[in-house]
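To whoever is on call:

I kicked off a structure prediction for a single chain this morning and the downstream step that reads the tokens threw a length-mismatch warning. I double-checked the sequence; it's 259 residues and nothing unusual in it as far as I can see. Pasting both halves so you can look.
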Amino acid sequence: MQRLSLNQHQPLHLTCLSTTDVIKALLIMNPTSQTLTNDSLAASWIPIIPSSEVSKAKNIALGFIDGEELAIWRAEDGTAQAWANRCPHRGLRFTLGRIINGRLSCAYHGWEYSANDGRCAAIPAHPQMPPPRNVCATTFKVTETNGMIWASRSEPTSPPPQTNQTMFLRTLAVRAPRDFVAKRLVGQGWTQSDPNVLEGTIDGSNVTAFVSDAGNNLVLLHINVSHETGLAQVKKMHSALRRLRQEVETCWISEGEDK
């Protein structure tokens, strides 16, 4: 049985949901997106969502970059796209739209935007009218590695860190600030090779956690394991990860009440 708490001061339980379902639930808990200005992260690659969660020219997934909502999708050639999750015409979320002819189409008036540059390419209500040149979606730099889609606000000078764990296991939603989650995991023997990458062991197996900050003290840990991990061990790891989340959230609630 899955249990979802919408109270920001109570643990979040999404243990039976897929990454896509977790992200959809976050729309309920984070009704407004926020943009964080962190100069140290602005030129860094940020892990957004597992590559396997986004199909070519099919679905539009929700991701986050430092608390700001992103619309994640793929062009017809499979190239991953990361755009600010708002149509420049009326501001509706792109994640409510669809992909038509390799373009992202807004659900409100159907305006279509081209992959890569985000320019408005068609207005269905006025098919003979040239699209306005100054209407563009806000796009982000994108790369893929380690089975993850990464995004950046600018052009990073180095690639994302590499890891031996490249098989996606699950997304763990943790109701606590990113820095607090990292501190707790490092305190338990995990290593932090990058501000958004943590490596450790779960039930004796090596794992990599790619950290995505959804804002409002909510963090998504996209967990990767080795391809050699067996099914029986995977089941044990799911239970261990749930216990880890409960421990971190309980500590955060306790420390928050003491302040």
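Update from on-call: the warning came from a stale cache, not from the record. Cleared it. Sanity check on the structure: Helices lie at 19-29, 39-42, 178-187, 231-258.
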